[in-house]
Amino acid sequence: MTQDEMKFDVAQAALKYVVKNTIIGVGTGSTANFFIDALATMKDDIIGAVASSVATAERLESHGIKVFDLNEVESISVYIDGADESDDGLNLIKGGGGALTREKIVAAVADSFVCIADESKLVGVMGEFPLPVEVIPMAANYVKRIIEKDIGGQAILRDFTTDNGNHILDIQGLKITDAKALETKLDGIVGVVTNGLFANRGANVLLLGTPNGVKVVSA
Ligand code: 5RP
């Protein structure tokens, strides 16, 4: 079974978590794209969606799914999105696609977070995937120096501009044993917009695509 087939399967499985007659949150990336395509089959069952990126908004709209600005909505029933890594406590690294800040905002508003991923994303200790940190452009070099001095690893500037007009530093070489503490510490550095650890608000459910079917992991 290919990785794409596993992503397809978890996207289909996530439909069960869509709360009818509500507004849902939708993430960004290749797994989220499979989910958006699956969601199109039940688009008349939901009021609409809040998107975590411009790309996701465009894909939702291409299927005729109504996209709401977050400021227009009072609540989001469920947020469905992929991840770059997860540990078995359902702490996540996200932001490989650069949408981490909007993803984290939509996840914060949502009543629950269903993460969808193929089995390669579940790891013992997170950090092999470089941890993204969105920074205000003028602060990039300052934040890089502070990270390398106070946290460790190597912070590499990605050749990328986020939907918010900011830059991303990818921290390589971390072994993340206390995700909540690291998330909080990184957010405390002046110039950091947000970081790709989703631990203080991790996933509630992880749907993992495996060659033997979709495995459900709960926090
Ligand atoms: C984008 C993300 C994605 O969810 C993450 O990168 C996983 O992507 P994919 O489903 O393509 O493997 O956080 O910012």
UniProtKB/TrEMBL annotation:
Physiological role: Catalyzes the reversible conversion of ribose-5-phosphate to ribulose 5-phosphate.
GO cellular component annotations of the record: cytosol
Membrane-crossing residue ranges in chain numbering: none
Keywords annotated in UniProt: Isomerase
Organism expressing this protein natively: Candidatus Thioglobus autotrophicus
InterPro entries the UniProt entry points to: NagB/RpiA_transferase-like, Ribose5P_isomerase_typA_subgr, Ribose5P_isomerase_type_A
HAMAP family reported in the protein's UniProt record: Rib_5P_isom_A (MF_00170)
Catalytic reaction annotation: aldehydo-D-ribose 5-phosphate = D-ribulose 5-phosphate
Protein family according to the UniProt entry: Belongs to the ribose 5-phosphate isomerase family.
MF-aspect GO terms: ribose-5-phosphate isomerase activity
Positions that bind substrate: 28-31, 81-84, 94-97, 121
Swiss-Prot/TrEMBL GO biological process terms: D-ribose metabolic process; pentose-phosphate shunt, non-oxidative branch
Quaternary structure, from the entry: Homodimer.
Name this polypeptide is given: Ribose-5-phosphate isomerase A
Superkingdom of this protein's organism: Bacteria
Biochemical pathway: Carbohydrate degradation; pentose phosphate pathway; D-ribose 5-phosphate from D-ribulose 5-phosphate (non-oxidative stage): step 1/1
EC number: 5.3.1.6
Catalytic residues in the record: 103
